Amino acid sequence: MNSKDYDLLLMFKIVLVMTTSNKLNEFNTILKDEMFISSYQVDKMGYLSIPAIGSILEELAWRHADSGDFGFDALNNQNMLWVLSRLSVKILQRPQWRDQIIIKTWSCGPDGIFARREFQFEDRQGNVLLTAVSHWLILDGDTHRMIRLNKMMDLFPAHAAIEHDFSPIKIETVHADYSGEYEQVRHSDIDLNKHMNNTKYMQRLIDSYDEEVIDKYRISSFEVNYLNEAIFGDRLKVVRQDPENNEQRTTIIRESDQKEMARIQFNWEER
């Protein structure tokens, strides 16, 4: 298929999504909900774990997009899919087991080649606990070619303003000061898109540290660049660069082709 034919097919898909959507006019620009921090969402210290934070953000994004008929099902029906490309999270105060918190998300519309989405966690008094910004791409389900968001401007009901004064960064190359063992991607790692779920990369990173490190330090902020898709049976390993000023960069490598699956940059703080 040449590029002209591909663009015509893409425009047909976009028009079909627009004409079959019956929710956009009722779309709430901010999704706000209240949640209870359960025991299965916390680490051994009783604080909301990093993988659980990632899962909450991802589920919030899906729910909000679905409420506007622009989520998983609407795109999947047209053989398109959302993929998370970059994520930046700043933890101001870590929620604990049994806490009741307010979680919010909103779409900020296209941001260059990405769709920008922001998040915020608050306690019941309105104090901000966590802020996050994510960058998403829409891919063709067959070719995995990126779909240009400037063709889809009408489908982005945006929040009134960008609230958070930061954006996900492009993480620099990671130098291998530590290299772990290759471990297989298992069934429990796979999500609806049939590849390793985004939260599993942070889980593998945390699991690569000795207990004394996790007992003494915790992650206060992190950035993730998702670069390639891992599928069931792939063998992955964690490669880490030594920390500088409490900041550390890591990458996840696939054994079969030595491609990077994700780069992660984060800051440690003492507990």
Describe this structure in words.
With 271 residues, the protein is of the alpha+beta class. Strands 1, 2, 3, 4, 5, 6, 7, 8, 9, 10 and 11 form an eleven-stranded antiparallel beta sheet that branches. Helix 2 runs antiparallel to helix 4.
CATH-scheme architecture of the largest domain: Roll
How many domain modules?
2
Q: Could you tell me the CATH topology label of the largest domain.
A: Thiol Ester Dehydrase, Chain A
Q: Please tell me how large the radius of gyration is.
A: 19 Å
Number of DSSP helical runs: 5
Biggest sheet, open or closed, and with what strands and sense? 11 strands, antiparallel
Overall geometric form: globular
Question: How would you classify the helix and strand content by structural class?
Answer: alpha+beta
The CATH superfamily of the largest domain turns out to be Hotdog Thioesterase
Show unreliable segments.
4-22
Furnish the topology, listing elements before pairings.
Elements: H1 3-20, E1 30-36, H2 50-67, H3 72-76, E2 80-91, E3 100-111, E4 114-122, E5 128-140, E6 178-179, E7 183-184, H4 199-207, H5 211-216, E8 217-226, E9 235-240, E10 247-254, E11 260-270
Antiparallel strand pairs: 1-3, 2-5, 2-8, 3-4, 4-5, 6-9, 7-9, 8-11, 9-10, 10-11
